[in-house]
Amino acid sequence: MSLKHSYSLIAPFYDVFLEAVTRAPRRKSLTSLLPNVPQDVFINGVGTGLDLPHLPQQHRYVGLDLTPGMLRRSLRRRDGLHFRAVQGNAERLPFADESFDAAILHLILAVVPDPAHCLAETARVLRPGGSILVFDKFLRQGERGLWKRAMNPLLRRVATRLDVVFEELLGAVPTLQLISDEPTLAAGWFRLIRLRKG
Ligand SMILES: C[S@@+](CC[C@H](N)C(=O)[O-])C[C@H]1O[C@@H](n2cnc3c(N)ncnc32)[C@H](O)[C@@H]1O
What we know:
The protein is 35% helix and 26% strand. It contains six helices and seven strands. The chain has helices at residues 3-31, 68-75, 115-124, 146-158, 166-171, 185-188, and strands at residues 40-44, 60-65, 82-87, 100-106, 126-137, 176-183, 190-197. The chain has a single domain, classed as Vaccinia Virus protein VP39 (Rossmann fold, 3-Layer(aba) Sandwich). Bound molecules: S-adenosylmethionine.
């Protein structure tokens, strides 16, 4: 089963499981970190648009997702935002270099098959000095993560990877600098990370 197929099946139930539990970290990632001046903001893997209610109104947003059923739901949440939904692949973005001032990577790096490539593509479409806001679950460097690695072969095909080490992704994209990295849900399995393109 492809991720597009499984997320088409998950789409009607996604918010029931994810909306409440992820609300606080989303708010923390988004509200304080986007600047006041209007900017072009890219939401990679926008899903059902759970980020949209936390986004300030002054920016112009483009949300991309592979799965039409997820993307359609995001449109119901745009509510006055300048928001455009684009169907596409997070690993081959249909945008020119340096198209955006900021990017949001919430619960997408640990989903796509090649997260380093997804991060590199996001950096490519970002203007120099732009920020990337990451909220996701990562293995710590050197963590054995036995049950996570055991579940990974099944779960990576239908919903999410459990074996992504963030530091390995960052090491593969030399244009990005780490600005902050703090633990959030599940005793720090999930992290809020801010990056800047040099
Ligand atoms: C776990 S959901 C996260 C959605 C949203 N960012 C959030 O925070 O709730 C993962 C999303 O990634 C999308 N997705 C999976 N593979 C993708 C790909 N290669 N390119 C773009 N989107 C993808 C799925 O359709 C799904 O909407």
